[in-house]
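re: the backbone from monday

yeah here it is again, tokenized this time
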């Protein structure tokens, strides 16, 4: 009988590990969808069931009509688009400076930027609230409960600067020298040479920023106090109250709130893999 080669066994082990990882990622999504179709009689069964015995599609329409989700979707999309546009501009310019320009303290400043990624959001959220409350130009409470509080503080993103800088460093130095010899200034060099060659990295920055903004909960929860300005993640918290959590409605709302992210990721996954390959970031 022909023996199995070690390479074949190693590949099967890798495939089994990938399959186990895929199952670990898919099961929570399946459980969310299954719970969204359950009624009270299915939710509290012991032991829990993996599928609803009496599917209740009405959970989706009831969840949609319970809170103003159209307004939440508009707020979230508006804030996310503004932040993505701002992050692309600030990250592109900052990454260009850290990758191509020579100035005193460049590495120290860049490392200082990276160190801010280790500070968790709850540490600075109270001081941020006080600062935004006292800023002029907003309403009676400063920038609190205003789009400015949700957008302006997040127009710069350290991880995006790091990602683009690593990508820019992969360009050969001869490209920069040739642009300088031809009389190409820094602004023209960025917009006509660097950015067109960085579509994959920019797509990844846009996607990560959009997802982070879409999933933001603590910051908008503290900085807003009315439904007219709140994003969708804060709206989901309506179903978890002191009287109890409406699990079926919450999971139904979670399904249609996460659907746009899945669609965006499905169409942009090739650009993400290409960007991570070019920047040298490997899992």
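seq for it, each position gets an aa:
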């Amino acid at each position: 009988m022909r023996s199995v080669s070690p390479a074949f066994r190693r590949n099967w082990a890798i495939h089994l590990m990938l399959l186990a990882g895929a199952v670990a990622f898919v099961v929570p999504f399946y459980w969310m969808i299954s719970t969204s179709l359950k009624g009270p009689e299915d939710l509290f069964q012991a032991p829990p069931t993996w599928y609803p015995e009496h599917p209740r599609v009405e959970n989706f329409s009831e969840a949609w009509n319970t809170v103003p989700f159209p307004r939440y979707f508009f707020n979230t999309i508006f804030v996310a688009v503004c932040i993505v546009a701002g992050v692309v501009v600030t990250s592109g310019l900052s990454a260009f400076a850290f990758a191509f320009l020579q100035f005193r303290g460049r590495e120290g400043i860049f490392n200082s930027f990276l160190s801010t990624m280790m500070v968790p959001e709850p540490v600075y959220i109270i001081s941020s609230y006080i600062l935004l409350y006292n800023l002029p130009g907003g309403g009676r409470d400063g920038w609190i409960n205003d789009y400015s509080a949700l957008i302006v503080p997040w127009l710069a993103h350290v991880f995006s600067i790091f990602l683009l800088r690593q990508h820019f460093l992969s360009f050969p130095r001869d490209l920069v020298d040739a642009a300088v010899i031809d009389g190409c200034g820094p602004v023209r060099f960025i917009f006509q040479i660097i950015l067109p060659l960085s579509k994959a990295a920019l797509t990844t920055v846009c996607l990560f920023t959009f997802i982070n903004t879409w999933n933001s909960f603590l910051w908008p929860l503290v900085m807003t106090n009315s439904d007219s300005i709140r994003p969708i993640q804060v709206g989901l918290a309506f179903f978890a109250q002191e009287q109890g959590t409406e699990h079926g409605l919450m999971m139904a709302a979670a399904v249609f709130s996460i659907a746009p992210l899945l669609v965006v990721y499905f169409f942009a996954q090739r650009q993400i893999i290409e960007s991570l390959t070019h920047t040298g970031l490997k899992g």
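The chain has a mean pLDDT of 82. DSSP finds 14 helices and two strands in the chain.
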